[in-house]
Amino acid sequence: MHDRLWWHVQRTFFHVEFPDAIVNEQLHINALEMLTVVVCLKLWGTKLRGKRIIIKCDNQVTVTVINTGRSRNQFLQSCLREICFVAAINEFELRAVHIAGVDNRLADMLSRWHLHNEFSVKLLLKGIAREKQHLPKQALAITVDMLLDINRVINHDDPKQCTIWCLFLFAFFLMARKSNLVPDSKMSFDIDKQLTRNKVMLEGNIAIAIFYWSKTIQMGNRILKIPLIENTSSALCPLRAYRNMCKLIPAAGDSPAFLFPSKHKLVPVTYTDFQRYIKEFISKIGRNPRLFSTHSFRRGGATFAFESKVPAELIIVHGDWASDAYKLYLQFSLSEKVSVAKAMTKFIP
What we know:
By secondary structure, the chain is of the alpha+beta class. The protein has helices at residues 20-23, 29-44, 60-68, 74-90, 105-111, 119-131, 144-153, 159-173, 178-181, 238-248, 271-284, 295-307, 312-318, 334-346, and strands spanning 4-9, 12-17, 52-57, 93-98, 200-203, 206-211, 224-229, 259-262, 265-268.
């Protein structure tokens, strides 16, 4: 769970929601997993003195960072220093073991423990919300104008930048979740979950992106096929960007769709790369990078589709939403809101 901590030591359980200061940072799940370990070791560190501790975790990055004692990510490295400090003070040894998510029964059951459906709990939560009022922080939507600005500062002859540009356009026009486009780390690429070169089918002026897994397709019960249309008159043509990327970085069909050249080999573009480059290019076009994230593309794509008068049911299908949750992604301008008031005014007798 991204917003809660669940741990137990010697039948002692600990559960708490992350404070708003952490939630508002929109940290990656890898960072939240490591932060959970830090919090729990600080809570129970004195009880672990002289012991050998095994942490079973379904996050491969967390396991790797703990066992290797290093990470290139600044936040994960900071967490690692805290872990080493607590372990040294309390004289215990620590090792992490990866456990597949499907086998992590306890965490899985807790994540599905939906008490909020109980009437009494609903009343309690409503009262808490009234007493502890706050405005949820959402990443702003990427707009077409912003993409055009980014296009002007992109070097389309640079293999890395042309790959990032293609990733930006795919994320926007597919309204795709980042988990379907890039892995969390170079080692965690999953051919069944992330987009590969042979899952982008080109046929004339149409490309079909094929997904066998997504947040709403957990059991392989259906195949998601999302089309992209060539637009030769626009700089924001996803097919042109894809062809250019494949020309500069050719790869086998079962390779990740988005690759970086690195020391005479190709490596998958990761979530960290995705996040870093979006903030870099947002800065280059004079915007505040803290207001945008990789999620901004999915939100921006849904908003643009709505502005383009695409029917709601088709937006749901295209973005693979299981419900009307897509409405939370829509971002309306003041002029659009004014148009509603004007339309209503016309019918006032």
